[in-house]
DNA sequence: ATGTCCCTGTAACAGGGA
């Protein structure tokens, strides 16, 4: 499964379709689609259906917008977060569905803008309501998306550069910690890369991506049942390169098809045939 | 520090959001 803030699904369509064909995820959570549901379906419905995806959409005309794409079923769809405030009206920032037996929450958490602003208070209240929804949910859950919070100082390129800014304040980090504690959620990408700089967002401006001056604010959090099935977890930086990228990279998590141990080891036994060595005469790929 | 990109509305730019 994967989560990706695409920053306009209309602008990102060629990149998104190519990426789906390349990575072939079973479930994808999209954020900042910036498209009403009827326009989303007109634009992408056929392309997604031909690839085997069903969709759960919660969009708006101009801002925000979230979606879940799934090849493994999409049941009990819920849009929005029960009990969450609007700003002042409800915004399209959350969609949940059960896909392949896992309750998936695809989220675009409010930005917060400035500490102690109305929008910042909205962000904290919204996260508190989300925490209750997740706490009331089943044992198999994934909470993912653009959380607009860097969990620790290791998740920003320079903590000093973020002094006085949102995304790193103690209150935001505490709200995230409370959300994780409510259901024992694990940050599966950080667990896989405990000592690496792994960013998911780089500002478009000033060559930030080129210099790897980014933040890790797109998270995949999993309950114990699901986290124990994780076989790989990474941020797909390739998708941030080249022409017409989003400012966010996708986060990809591979799950075993059954709880750990049920289908045997993933590493082939020594007797398994090895892949042929590549001939050394191939031209260098540069 | 605000150099980019994306949206809408209104008209080939302004203003908001990230």
Automatic annotation (TrEMBL):
Domain Endonuclease/exonuclease/phosphatase residue range list: 2-248
Superkingdom: Bacteria
Needed cofactors: Mg(2+); Mn(2+)
Keyword field: Hydrolase, Magnesium, Manganese, Metal-binding
Annotated GO biological process: DNA repair
Spans traversing the lipid bilayer: none
Binding site for Mg(2+): 5, 32, 146, 148, 247-248
Entry GO MF terms: DNA binding; double-stranded DNA 3'-5' DNA exonuclease activity; endonuclease activity; metal ion binding
Active-site residues (renumbered): 108, 146 (proton donor/acceptor), 248 (proton acceptor)
Textual note on the cofactor: Probably binds two magnesium or manganese ions per subunit.
Location of region: Disordered: 240-286
Listed PROSITE patterns: AP_NUCLEASE_F1_1 (PS00726), AP_NUCLEASE_F1_4 (PS51435)
Residues the UniProt record annotates as site (Interaction with DNA substrate): 248
One Pfam family matching this protein: Exo_endo_phos
Site (Important for catalytic activity) location in chain: 218
Enzyme Commission number(s) from the entry: 3.1.11.2
Entry-linked SUPFAM superfamilies: DNase I-like
Transition state stabilizer, annotated site positions: 148
PANTHER family from the UniProt entry: EXODEOXYRIBONUCLEASE III
Family named by the database record: Belongs to the DNA repair enzymes AP/ExoA family.
NCBIfam families: exoDNase_III, xth
Protein name: Exodeoxyribonuclease III
């Amino acid at each position: 499964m994967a989560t990706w803030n695409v920053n306009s699904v209309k602008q990102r369509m060629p990149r998104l379709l190519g990426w789906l064909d390349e990575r072939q995820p079973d479930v994808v959570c999209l954020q900042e689609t910036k498209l009403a549901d009827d326009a989303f379906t007109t634009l992408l419905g056929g392309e997604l259906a031909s690839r085997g995806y069903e969709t759960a959409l919660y969009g708006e005309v101009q801002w925000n917008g979230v979606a879940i794409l799934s090849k493994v079923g999409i049941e009990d769809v819920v849009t929005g977060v029960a009990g969450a405030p609007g700003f002042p009206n409800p915004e399209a920032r959350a969609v949940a569905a059960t896909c392949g037996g896992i309750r998936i929450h695809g989220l675009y958490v409010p930005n917060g803008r400035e500490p102690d602003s109305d929008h910042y208070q909205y962000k904290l209240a919204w996260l508190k309501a989300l925490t209750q929804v997740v706490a009331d949910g089943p044992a198999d859950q994934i909470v993912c998306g653009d959380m607009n919070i860097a969990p620790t100082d290791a998740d920003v390129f320079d903590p000093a550069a973020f002094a006085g800014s949102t995304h790193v304040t103690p209150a935001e980090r505490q709200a995230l910690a409370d959300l994780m504690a409510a259901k024992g959620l694990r940050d599966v990408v950080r667990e896989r890369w405990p000592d690496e700089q792994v960013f998911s967002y780089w500002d478009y401006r000033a060559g930030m991506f080129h210099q790897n001056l980014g933040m890790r604010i797109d998270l995949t959090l999993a309950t114990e049942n699901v986290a124990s099935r994780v076989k790989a977890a990474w941020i797909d930086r390739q998708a941030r390169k080249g022409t017409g990228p989003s400012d966010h990279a996708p986060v990809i998590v591979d799950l075993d098809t059954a709880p750990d141990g049920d289908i045997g080891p993933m590493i082939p036994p020594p007797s398994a045939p090895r892949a042929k060595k590549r001939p050394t005469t191939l031209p260098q790929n540069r």
